[in-house]
Amino acid sequence: MKSVANALLYNGIWFVAVSRAAEGDMWSGPLTMACFVVVHLLWTPRPERQRELVFLLAAGSVGSAVDSLLHGAGFIAYPTSHAVWTAGIVPPWITCLWVGFATMPRFSLAWLTRLPWPVAAGFGAVGGGLAFFAGTRLGAIEAGMGPWTYGALAVEYAVLTPLLVFGHRGLRSAQRPKARPPEAEASA
Q: Are 140 and 22 in contact (CB under 8 A)?
């Protein structure tokens, strides 16, 4: 149930963030995403919440940094964003989308961890491009270099999606308590 709710909430908030950004509102997406992150952390087992929050913030930072590089190189443009975000730095709604995307490996994209990493890479390459295309249709973002933009985005998401999915799997396995050896159980 949490997997379905996670997917529906993320996609709904994606739409709010992107459609409001197309109207010049840079903050509705981040504020809505902040509420979603609180819900996500409440769904996360208490002992794992701090690491989960660090994971979400790290994913937001890395995704934003890569998008900033693509923006600075002219691959991506944000036509309705304030001038401060035209200097190669992504607007806040982009960062919020990366943070939200990072919630998905715990619930709705957990199935990808059971598959080989090339599947996650292909999923990211196609899904990232489709999301970007939808953002262009809504008017929040532009492909500054036409088809080359989609190629760059395919590479970006083909790398970052498996990193998020399998990085989260590693985070979760590091959080599990270590099993005591059988001889320790017998002597206890």
A: yes
Global pTM value: 0.89
Q: Which of 31, 32, 26, 27 is nearest to 12 (CA)?
A: 32
CA 79 to chain centre: 22
Q: Cα(71)–Cα(9) distance, rounded to whole angstroms? A: 27
Return the residue matching tokens 């913030």: 57
* Residue 188 placed within a domain: no
Question: Could you give the percent of the chain with pLDDT greater than 90?
Answer: 82
Task: Report the pLDDT value the prediction gives residue 82, as an integer from 0 to 100.
Answer: 67
Domain that holds residue 92: 2-176
Q: Which residues of 40-56 are buried (b: 16+ CB within 10 A; e: fewer)?
A: bbeebeeebeeebeebb
